[in-house]
Amino acid sequence: MNIAIIGGGPAGAFAGESLAGAGLAVTIIDEKLAWEKPCGGALTAKALEQYPFLASGEAPKRFVDRAVLVASSGARACLRLRRPIAIYSRQVLNGLLLDRARRAGATIVQDRVVEAERRDEQWMLRGKHSEYTADFCVVAAGARNPLRHMGASLGRDDTYVALGYYVPGRPQAHIEIQFRNDLEGYIWVFPRTDHLSVGICGRIDSRGTPWLRHVVEDYMAARGIPLDGATFYCHLLPSLEPASFERNRVEGEGWAAVGDAAGLVDPITGEGLYYALRSADLLAGGVREGRVAEYARCVRAELMDDLQLGARIARRFYHGRFLFDAVTTRMVQFCRRSPAFEDLMQDLIAGSQTYRGLKERLWRQFGLTLWEIASGCLRPSHEPFEIESPV
Ligand SMILES: Cc1cc2nc3c(=O)[nH]c(=O)nc-3n(C[C@H](O)[C@H](O)[C@H](O)COP(=O)(O)OP(=O)(O)OC[C@H]3O[C@@H](n4cnc5c(N)ncnc54)[C@H](O)[C@@H]3O)c2cc1C
After folding, report:
1. Average pLDDT, the chain
2. Is residue 287 domain-resident?
């Protein structure tokens, strides 16, 4: 079988490596190849444990074992992460994955696919520079997939805008997440090897992208993060509404979609890299074993059902109230005072706490959490590390 993969980001490159490694003829077509795609670049412990080469290889990356969560009220919780996360520059990560695909035998071409048409069980792909034929097409063109008849169909309510700045300099050692009561999303500060990635993600609403930019710039000014020399970035992030998961198209006649092009992003955290890799893995396994038709079922059972549940929780998480304050504020306060709640937060940051199990776990340990908070209030609280200046 001759396979064309449209898009050579993490999803396309990883699918390409696995399919070419199984002896299939694979061509990956990407308009930019390895590039600094706007992204935080954070890989959770779940991703690093499932795909250990991402943690062990020589490609430059930053391991981070400290996180600071800040509520709208200014309350903060400092966590020493038991399972560190790795932060990559996307140019490095994409380059690493494309190299692995090339070494596995995939052909990699720089071109932009503008049209895909199926004729007599064959795909005819028209690129800006050349034409390609294939028996099977993997759609991995990301959130801005231009092939409207293949992959997730993202409506206005199914996306977040994510924008921010890359700030040069020797960055702080911790990640920072700032919540705001007026934002369905959050601000992040992620240290990379030689710069900071600062950004904000939020649902597109009447305040528009300029408001998000204004908020992140205000935040940077308040935190002493210089705009001088910083590079602006902006992109879309799929964040499907619960109903959109029901009608989400991840495969069709002769094609399957992976990663952002399949809408596979966590609607609360915005994590997409794990889902890009995992969906590519599931698809490649299906193709290798001649069970492509199983892909949609596998991706729904393993990934999409839980992401859909996340989408149901997202509004309540960002805008809801609990015990007379914002849910996110309570979360930060609980995290600071209750070891049991901090354990839960550690698992959420590591990516190993499913939304399916979250509600049950919260209720199961609710009594213990309250008891720990009450008894903790009698002790002076301390922070496990000192907060450094950002750059
Ligand atoms: C600002 C921001 C911050 C983020 N931070 C994180 C984070 O810290 N951690 C995390 O896990 N996730 C994060 N995400 C999500 C993550 O970036 C995506 O989920 C991930 O990149 C998806 O990988 P992908 O391969 O599906 O798509 P992409 O990485 O978008 O790759 C798609 C590729 O397709 C190519 N392409 C597009 N159209 C065509 C075409 N017509 N022809 C040929 N090539 C084409 C592009 O050049 C690109 O290389 C963030 C997203 C944004 C926007």
Report:
1. 94
2. yes
